Amino acid sequence: MLLPFNEWRHVFKLDPAKPIDDASLQAIATSGTDAILVGGTDDITLDATLDLLMRLRRYPVAVALEISELEAATMGFDTYLTPTVLNAGTLEYVVEKQVEALEQVGHMLAHADLVGEGYIVLNPDAKVAHVTQAKPLTLDETVAYAQLADSVFRLPVVYLEYSGVYGEPERVAAVRDVLKQARLFYGGGIDSEERAREMLQYADTIVVGNVIYEDLKAALATVAATR
Ligand code: 1GP
C-alpha cells in the first residue's frame, strides 16, 4: 500500500539533476522507505523528472513531486508538495513562485493531492538559503515561525531544512513542542542510522538526500531507524 504523506516516517529525496544508476535506484525504492520525494534546487528539467518518475513507477512505493521548478511539474505523481520558504528574504519564495506555478499548472493539478510545506531554512551555507536569501534565525525565532505555520497558516507540513549539514536536535525538539496539527519534516545531514534515530525522536518524518549520491550503503542504513 502506498502511504499518504501524513504517515511517512522516512523519505528519500532524489534530485532529477543528479544521475543514479538502475541498481542504486532499485535499492532505494525497495529499501522499506515510505516515499520517494523528487525535488532539487536547480537544473531541474521536465525530461529528467519524467525519466525518474517512470523508473520509480516499477516499484510499490509512494512517489511525490516537490514543485520547486515550474517547468518540471507533470502529472503522474501520487502527491505534490508545494514549498513556501517562510524565512525567505524575498516575497518571491514565500508566495510569488507558488502563484506563478498555480497560474500555469493549477488546472492540471486541480484533482491532485496538493500538500503545502512551510520550509524554515536553517543552514546559511545551503544552496536553498542563498537562492531564497533566507534570514538566519535564533531558536526562539525558529519556534515562532513554526507556530505561525502551524497554528495560524495551518500548513500541513513544517519542514526544518538543514540541507547539507546535520541540525541541532534541541531546535527540532523545541519546534516539536509547539506544533499542534502540522507534520514535522526534518532534512539535513542524515547519513547514519544513529542520526536518523536521533531526529526521529522529534520529527514525524525525516528526509534523506545527499548521502544517497555519496554513500549508498550509509543511505540505506538510515531506513532501519524507523523500526
Ligand atoms: C534536502 O532536506 C533534504 O532538501 C535532505 O538533506 O541532502 O542533507 O540529506 P540532505
Which stretches are poorly predicted, pLDDT < 50 over at least 5 residues?
none
Spatially, the strands of the biggest sheet line up as: 1-2-3-4-5-6-7-8
Structural class: alpha/beta
What would the average pLDDT be, to the nearest integer?
A: 95
Number of domain units = 1
Using the coordinates shown, work out and report the CATH topology: TIM Barrel
User: In what range is the share of β-strand residues?
Assistant: 15-25%
CATH superfamily: FMN-linked oxidoreductases
The radius of gyration is 16 Å
What is the CATH C level class, in words?
Alpha Beta
Keywords: Lipid biosynthesis, Lipid metabolism, Magnesium, Metal-binding, Phospholipid biosynthesis, Phospholipid metabolism, Transferase
Subunit structure: Homodimer.
Binding site for Mg(2+): 15, 41
Pathway: Membrane lipid metabolism; glycerophospholipid metabolism
Brief account:
The chain has 227 residues and is an alpha/beta fold. It contains 9 helices and 8 strands. The chain has one domain (5-226): TIM Barrel (Alpha-Beta Barrel), CATH 3.20.20.390.
Give an account of the 3D structure.
The structure is a single chain. This protein has a single domain, classed as TIM Barrel. It contains 9 helices and 8 strands. The longest helix has 14 residues, at 139-152. The two termini are 18 Å apart. It is 34% helix and 19% strand. α5 packs parallel to α6. It has an 8-stranded parallel β-barrel, surrounded by 4 helices. It is an alpha/beta fold and 227 residues long. 42% of the residues are buried. The radius of gyration is 16 Å and the shape is globular. SN-glycerol-1-phosphate (1GP) is lined by residues 13, 161, 163-164, 187-190, 207-211. One of its GO terms (molecular function) is magnesium ion binding. Its cofactor is Mg(2+). One of its GO terms (biological process) is glycerophospholipid biosynthetic process.
